Fold:
Amino acid sequence: MIINNKRRKIYLLLALPLSIFVAYVFTTIAPVFKIHPAPVELTVIVEFLCGLFFIIAAGMIFNEDSRINGVIYAGIFAAIPCFYVYLSPWANIGLLLISFSSGVLIGLVFVARAVLNNRYDNLAVMAKILFTVFFAIIVGFLAYEMWIFAIEPESETTSAYAAQNIFFFGAGIVVSVILYILAVKLTIGVRASEIFIFGPRSSGKTYFVMGLWNYISQNFDKGHSNEGVVLTGDPNDEGDDLRISSLYANILDGRILSRTYRYQMVIYQLTGKKYGLIPVKWTVVDYAGEYYDELNEINFKKAVSLLSERLEMAQGEVRKNAGTIPFVKYIKLHHPEKLLDPEFTKSVIIATMYGNFLKAGKVIFLIDGEKITDNRKGHSQLAREFGGYMKTLIDLEGKNYFGFFSSNKKYALVVTKADLILWKNKEIRNLIHSMNASKLSDIPEKSKQALAIEKNLFEILSSNMVFKNLVNMMNDISMYFVCVSVDATAEPFPTEEGMEEEIAPTALAPWRFTEIFRFGL
Structure:
């Protein structure tokens, strides 16, 4: 469920009435511009840009994050040419149509490439660039007109009328600045090809990756994953247990998956095709949970510096490649002996994690569902973990990653081990029983009942003040809250004495992972 998009709603509420007001004002007093009509060349350029912006906006409609922007912008930049022709009966309609169509055709190539590569963030960046070009043209034109009236007050009109027009053009510049800032802030673009899973120890990262793998394999054309690029600092450990096939075999055998150790890291790449056409490619890093509170710019710089020195590579090159599969493969193939040094291995892991975190458009914060069932100790541990998440977000915002021309990040808070919560939390258990269900698999994952479970869990977590602060911080764009289970059929182990509370997945039966992919695509 979407739980937080306050800031964007505020921007939208401000932008819509202001845009209507400005359109009304400019329509009413448009004859003022006829004193010094725009040159034909400028008109052709603006029409071309309108066509380009129109098709870019149409492409944005295909993505949930930018759909509102796309509808508004497509309407605006389809209306501008009509508005101009209506006010300018002398306009060369044929020339304007050619200019507009040329912009559409050229933009269509860019849009097709962005859509087919699932890079809607590129459309948002292009929209921001076009906004900047339009802003420069409008402000330049208004400033020129203001200058003309200022230096030639007696040539065509009286001084009083000139002063009135200077005020009008000056006000137009101020309003243009306000609209430009709002438009750029409203334009949302999220990179969907990289996803970072943030989670402390025992939060269920490895099981979560297996849930993603199972879902993409079942629901996408040609859905599959690489076996995992494993990096390990132990010469006696090849990391075979971390490969997808080994993890799946252990689940089928009913074994609890072992934790990922500090000297281990693995990068998985999940791929498939949406609608059989649009490629879906997620890069996911699995790592030891102890690292979750070490992800910050200071530690990243230290890691980059050490790797630069040991690999004899420029720091800029290390920064550029950190977090990518080819970089990890390069270290494994060409510098395996250096991985025997714990400090070097740690630097590789931190650089890979933080580099992937910076590149990722989607960030998932895992919340250990088992800790929710422990009202005192569990919630105190969660408070510390939420505090660690807040530190990382503050560090990230300090790097201006929410700047004008950068892609946005989209966040999700994901509660894991929902099947275990069912058996250990009386409130949730009673809620599910009231739905005539005995286990999670009895509840359709797209149902109102599933949403009711999530809302109940959100209310439980909201009693934790650090959690509320974390939610309040992530209010730039829509934030998701999802409760998932890797095995919705899981039940407590039966024994002679009764039912044990320990539960382990014995199959892959993902529940609510549809919402994860809705968030991620």
User: Anything to note?
Assistant: The chain has a mean pLDDT of 79. Strands lie at 2-4, 195-198, 221-225, 229-232, 264-274, 278-287, 362-367, 410-415, 479-483. The radius of gyration is 28 Å. The chain has two domains: 2-186, 195-294+361-414+447-486.
